[in-house]
Amino acid sequence: MGRADSGARGEEPGELGRQSGRFAIPGRRHSLLVNDGAVRGSEGKPMAQASHAHQVTNQVPLLADYDAYAADPVLKAVVTAFDAGWANERLHEAGRTVGAAETIEMARLANRRGPELRSHDRFGNRIDQIEFHPAWHALMARAIGQETHALAWNRPGPGAQVARAALQYLWYGCESGICCPISMTYSAVPVLKQDRALWAQWGALVSSKTYDKTQGPAAGKLGATVGMAMTETQGGSDLRQTQTIAYDNRDGTYSLHGSKWFFSVPHSDVFLTLARNEEGISCFVVPGWRPDGERNGIAIQRLKDKCGNRSNASSEVEFRGAIGHMLGDPGRGLRTGLSMNHNTRLDIAAASAGLMRQAVMLAGHHAQHRTAFQRLLIDQPIMQNVLADLAIEAEAAAWLAFRLFAAVDRQEQSESEKLLARIGAPLAKYWVAKRTPAVVVEALECHGGNGFIEENPMARHYREAPLNSVWEGSGNVICLDVLRSLEREPGSLQALRAELHAVSGQDRRYDAALQALDNDLHDLIRHEGQARLLTERLALMLQGALLIRHAPHAVADAFVATRLGGHWSGHFGDLPLAVDVATLAKRAVPELA
Ligand SMILES: Cc1cc2nc3c(=O)[nH]c(=O)nc-3n(C[C@H](O)[C@H](O)[C@H](O)COP(=O)(O)OP(=O)(O)OC[C@H]3O[C@@H](n4cnc5c(N)ncnc54)[C@H](O)[C@@H]3O)c2cc1C
Q1: Collapsed DSSP state (helix, strand, coil) of residue 338
Q2: CB 157 near ligand 1, within 6 Å
Q3: Domains in the chain: ranges and CATH
Q4: 311 C-alpha vs ligand 1 centroid, how far in Å?
Q5: Per the confidence metrics, is the pTM higher than 0.85?
Q6: What is the pLDDT of residues 390-420, one digit of tens each?
């Protein structure tokens, strides 16, 4: 596409532009290139020594070697508000790691040189190993070393879940692929703990701070990761259709036969696997390898050639007599599996908020350094409106996700927090994941063409952005889960409404929106087809309540004015005149020391 000579309001197109059309070479009419290499004016006097060397101008400095935690005022506020201030030092360390130029380069490499399946060795024996670029292992070692997978379980106490989620948020903005095994391992812990013998076998390994890249038997390993084997070809939403069969070996083990259509991190040490036995669908713990070093009857058919999330290996797999132990009650596998899903869903909300924030920060950084029409982008009124709106969206996402992790932290002491966490996990998963692609696309556009090239992490973030809305329950299924929690645990709606009503009386537009929601709730809940609208409205109200309670007034005011009180289009850059967009746009810019 050709660029117009001028699109800025109040500026005249260049004289040449008017005379010679849009694609004329600027300055040609006034200067003349003669063969001594000097550029001359119309009178033939030299203007400057012509240089044929490539000149790089108006490019933005790399955002690297900074502390991504220190640069993020919202994350710091969230961590403080939700009892996780004790983790500050650790979060700064993680912030410096993910902000380091070296880590950013590793993330690029791990995605450019993605995993490869080595199904057989050179002699024709099946080995089913995955080969990675060393950058993948280095990233995994760093994230696991910082307990991104286990901090909440290793150091239980106030703010433990929030602190771990903050690590996930930071890492997801840097390299999202590694966050898949990290999140599955984190989420599996409470499920594994239900079985004393299995926990004795796996607990220390999955809580370990050591990443062990060995693809082999768990005995002798220094750390382990957990995978999840649920989705089959016939569908991942309706897991009641699971076809994989578990045959009882009558010795406490089962042999699993069947196939899984999406099977990420196939080199994991152990998998929580759904399979059908006599009692119905049960959950099984299936190690990746047998003690003798052989693969545990797990044959990887091929790796998925994915749209994004490319550093991470996802596969299609066959279980050919894989040996497993049942976890939980027979025939209650869906319940066991879904309790792991509950954790991954909430984790996705924190991860998506982290991706949003990183995209917004990159856009803010770009706009702060890039000039168009003789002015920095960040000083241009429309760009200010866009950046301010993006910053508000990312801020609202973070408060929503972390409020629910705080509820998980507090659920042992408070029934209402437990109920809030129950309804809040799908609510936050749906809404934050749903808003992420919109935020990332807009943040990419703030970069112009520079955002659309592979060397810019924006391109990777763009491909990653839709994924969190798809896996761990796609949008509609998540909204059905919101309905299910309202139906099965009516107290969850009361807990949520109490949270919403706690801030009423502070903003008349918020109060009106809350009243309207209260009026509509009955109908919204009754009609399955309205489940998205219901979820969206509940999520927006909760975000509004959290911003009113915790965020600077200007942020809460702009959020309520648009998302709750106005004619919101859902696009960015629509903030009304009364909003101080110039000041709010600065919240998109990383706070660098
Ligand atoms: C990169 C990637 C990695 C993955 N890794 C794993 C993994 O490691 N382990 C694993 O088990 N799974 C994994 N998955 C699978 C993932 O969890 C499923 O794709 C997801 O649960 C949706 O299932 P499906 O793809 O079969 O879609 P379907 O179940 O066919 O659903 C298709 C669409 O229909 C909608 N839908 C379904 N039911 C209803 C309904 N009742 N009403 C209205 N709409 C409905 C869904 O929301 C969705 O939009 C992975 C997926 C991806 C993309």
Answers
A1: helix
A2: no
A3: 1-57 (no CATH), 341-588 (1.20.140.10)
A4: 20
A5: yes
A6: 999 999 999 999 999 999 999 999 999 999 9
